[in-house]
Amino acid sequence: MQKFHVCVLGGSCGNRMIMIAEYLDELFNQRSYDCRVTSISVWECFSFPPSADLLLQLLPAYKAEEVDCPTINIRKLIQDIDDHETLELIFNELEKHVQVISQVPAR
Q1: CB under 8 Å to 97, separation ≥6 — which residues?
Q2: pLDDT tens-digit profile of 60-96?
Q3: pTM for the whole thing?
Q4: What is the DSSP string of 22-54?
């Protein structure tokens, strides 16, 4: 089974975008989530939404109806990387995924 792909999407926040992606990757590992975290700058590639299981947007580049996965606005993490409300939204979405995986019958 492939890892759950979380993509952090940013723009001119460059270094902060990478710091947030690395921090989230660390948090996911601490909680034993099997996730792959990547980051994409819309300044480098804006022609299409990135392929991911969860899109975390530091800026509103794509509307929910434009992507094939859940999307969460995480702009608050630019100011406070430990913003409880934002992290809770992210972990709630991950829990939905874990529940779906756990419901798949064993072969």
Answers
A1: 4, 53, 54
A2: 888 989 899 999 999 999 999 999 999 999 999 999 9
A3: 0.86
A4: HHHHHHHHHTT--EEEEEEETTT--SSPPP-SE
- Return the bridge partners of 18, or none: none
Do the Cβ atoms of 58 and 9 come closer than 8 Å? yes
**Side chain identity at 8, as an amino acid letter?**
V
Residue at 23: amino acid letter? Y
Q: Which two tokens stand for residue 71?
A: 């999307």
Can you tell me which residue has the tokens 């939204």? 89
Within 10 angstroms of residue 10's Cβ, the number of other Cβ atoms is 25
CB-based contacts of 95, cutoff 8 Å, min separation 6: none
